[in-house]
From TrEMBL:
Lineage of origin: Eukaryota, Viridiplantae, Streptophyta, Embryophyta, Tracheophyta
PANTHER family with a match to the protein in the record: CARBOXYPEPTIDASE, SERINE PROTEASE FAMILY S10 SERINE CARBOXYPEPTIDASE
Highest taxon in the source lineage: Eukaryota
Protein name: Serine carboxypeptidase-like 19
UniProt record, GO biological process: proteolysis; secondary metabolic process
Keyword Signal: yes
The keyword Signal appears for this protein: yes
Keywords: Signal
Family membership: Belongs to the peptidase S10 family.
Length: 341
């Protein structure tokens, strides 16, 4: 199934159709303002759906945000987020987008947004895509569609702009693969001190996942002990432990009914407000707000509840374990690449 994700994205960026119908429909919503954000947006925001599987009714949801500079000539960046079917709203809110959630104690109302002055939107047009199927607001009417173009066709004014593909976390595995496939289409005219030295000395290849000798197993065990003492996303962040498996929403529910929030069936764990993950917690209440979904043009009934990451509740198979060969192939062709950690 995971192989279909790159194929679907290639459909979006190269104009290749995902099925026999070359005229797959696209729906768009011009978003003039965002719930929780005061004032006008810094640049034009468009959301919409691209149908990529007409047989199963599969539609990918996207956010397209124009550059604050010169949209007509600034690069177009396709951004895919990592995790297991994580919503690209994470990238928009927590990483490179023009708005961020205001970190303040949640009181049952709509979380507020603020302007992010260091967004990549300053210099690029960014196409954020909820992918693969089932991530964020992307959906399939037939469950078979989850076991598994057309954006540029509807936006020809951006075809001449420089084009980049980017992503983070697990997306670092398939972004080089996607880039290589796009290049082929072009050519075809279509904080602890971790003892890494000890690990490198005694563990080779697949030994990192399944150590085959005692010394390697001991080194990996020590490595994991040290790693567990820090925040894995960033060693300088506070290592956070959730305060409760579920937030106390009894009083919040009463306000939810008053302010037309949907009651969350799977509310997120509530971390300390000092934790970097507190913004993740707030995102559930923003994205599941009825006014938010109406503003973004979310199709009614398409998603029962927005969740940041689906983890293991939808089927997928890992089939790209390393992206090294794709990096090599793409860079040997002369394409620029940036790898960051």
């Amino acid at each position: 199934m995971a192989l279909l994700l790159p194929l679907i994205v290639i459909c979006i960026v190269s104009g290749v159709t995902a099925d026999a119908n070359a005229d797959a429909p696209m729906t768009r919503t011009h978003v003039a303002s965002l719930p929780g954000f005061d004032g006008a947006l810094p640049s034009r925001l468009e959301t919409g759906y691209v149908t990529v599987d007409e047989v199963n009714g599969g539609e990918l949801f996207y956010y397209f945000i124009e550059s604050e500079g010169d949209p007509g000539s600034d690069p177009v960046l396709l951004w895919l987020t990592g995790g297991d079917r994580c919503s690209v709203l994470s990238a928009l809110f927590f990483e490179i987008g023009p708005v961020k959630l205001v970190i303040e104690p949640y009181n049952g109302g709509l979380p507020r947004l603020r302007y992010h002055p260091y967004s990549w939107i300053k210099v690029a047009n960014i196409l954020f895509v909820d992918s693969p199927m089932g991530a964020g607001f992307s959906f399939s009417r037939d469950p078979n569609g989850y076991d598994v173009s057309e954006w540029f066709d509807g936006h020809p004014e951006y075809l001449a702009n420089p084009f980049y593909v980017g992503g983070d976390s697990i997306a670092g595995r398939f972004v080089p693969f996607i880039t290589e496939k796009i290049s082929e289409d072009i050519e075809a005219a279509v904080r602890p001190t971790l003892n890494l030295k000890m690990i490198l000395e005694h563990c080779k290849g697949e030994d990192y996942d399944k150590p085959k000798n005692l010394i390697c197993r001991q080194a990996m065990a020590r490595f994991n002990e040290l790693l567990d003492e820090v925040s894995k996303p960033h060693i300088l962040y506070r290592k956070c432990i959730y305060l409760s498996p579920r937030p106390n929403l009894e009083s919040i529910h009463r306000k939810i009914l008053k302010e037309e929030f949907r009651v969350l069936k799977h509310p997120p764990p509530r971390p300390s407000i000092q934790c970097i993950t507190y913004a993740n917690y707030l995102s559930y209440f923003w994205a599941n707000n009825n006014n938010t979904q109406e503003t973004l043009g979310i199709k009614k009934g398409s998603v029962n509840e927005w969740v940041r990451c689906h983890n293991n509740d939808l089927p997928y198979t890992e089939d790209i374990m390393t992206s090294i060969k794709y990096h090599r192939n793409v860079t040997l062709k002369g394409y620029r690449a940036l790898v960051y950690r």
